[in-house]
Amino acid sequence: MAETGAGQESRGQALAARLRRNRWLLAAGVVAILVAYSFAGASILVLLPALALLVAAAMLPADAERQSADTAADIEAGGLQRLSGEYLAAAVADPLIIFDHSAAMVHANAAAFAAFGGLAPGMSLALKFRAPEMQALLDGILSGQLAADVVDYTEKLPVERTYRVSASTVGHATGLYVLVFKDQSETRRIDRMRADFIANASHELRTPLASIAGFIETLRGPARNDPAARDQFLQIMQNQTGRMARLIDDLLSLSRLEMKPYLRPGTAVDLRQTIDSVIDSLGPLASESGIVIERDFIDGPVSVPGDRDELFQVFENLLENACKYGQSGGRVTVSMARVDDGQDPGIDVTIRDNGPGIAEEHIPRITERFYRVDVENSRTQKGTGLGLSIVKHILTRHNARLSIKSEVGKGAAFTVHLPAR
Ligand code: ADP
Hints:
Oligomer: single chain
Distance between the termini: 60 Å
Bound molecules: adenosine-5'-diphosphate
CATH class of the largest domain: Alpha Beta
Shape: extended
CATH superfamily of the largest domain: Histidine kinase-like ATPase, C-terminal domain
CATH architecture of the largest domain: 2-Layer Sandwich
Order of helices and strands: HHHHHEEHHHEEEHHEHHEEHEEHHEE
Helix content: 40-55%
Number of domains: 4
CATH topology of the largest domain: Heat Shock Protein 90
């Protein structure tokens, strides 16, 4: 059998390692031979073969090395033959079913029993998996036309799951075949989410772009000589470019968060100082919206492990939302409390507004990307629909939680629980 490049390389490496290991022995041998040559007057014809013998001896494998190679060969020869198909099937994490020439089940591993109800030895797989693609897969492999084949198969009940199923023959002339089901549901879900996200982001960018393009046309045409209309349209165009810029900033924020490595442990954030500066930075927006921000903080220094800039972004988003959407309530409270319930000790920061609140059915969805309760309202409030998903992302990185409590007409309370450790 031809030896592969990798095989030659590893053999070469092993010889080099032995020579390295025996280098002192080799050196001593060479010195002895040279001494014999110089002082004892030995002939060069005797010395050269002696030198060659010495190098060959240094390259021979050591006892332990020989022993481990022998053991590996023993395991391969005896052990693998003894290893039962049942053990091998059990070691495979994906559902696996072995069947015979009549498509009757011979054996299934635990993952297959868990994934597909009602499996039993002897049952017909052609009846169990009636989807046309599975029938074609079984027919193809049993007719002997193919040694291996792959199809995508979707189970509808009890929950929809998509598998990539590969079928192949087992060994040579054993009369057995195997199906392995690789669950693709999660990959599909992520692909769908990514496609939806791109469609949403493109739509969000296209709307202001179309508006700007429309106004440029009007300014070059009918409004060419109308200074009042020109000023008004330029203002709208500026607002639209601002909207596009906010959206791009939020998209970049999200993608940066997704690419960031895990938080380095050990960095402590002064929470009181961080929240104070968020409140200060939103002062102008609050007074513009007629909102009074009240603080209800615990005494003493409060520090949590985390990233200061990211936590600033979290509280800025939540407080900005409270000022924008809770404007009618006039008052927003930011409270900070220590939670020592033993299970998950930490700090709870709650931002509570007295605005219109959020209906129950929207609460589980408002942290999704681009999800808004009222799209028009969000747009007038310069929203992008990405704020809360950025919040959620950052909190996940901090091992923290966001809980939302609200009742229509009674305001909303967003609580961030930051673990102490
Ligand atoms: P946006 O950029 O639209 O504000 P967010 O992700 O920050 O996006 O919020 C998603 C939606 O959640 C908002 O559009 C709004 O409908 C709703 N929302 C968020 N905070 C509040 C709040 N304090 N009161 C009422 N509704 C809110």
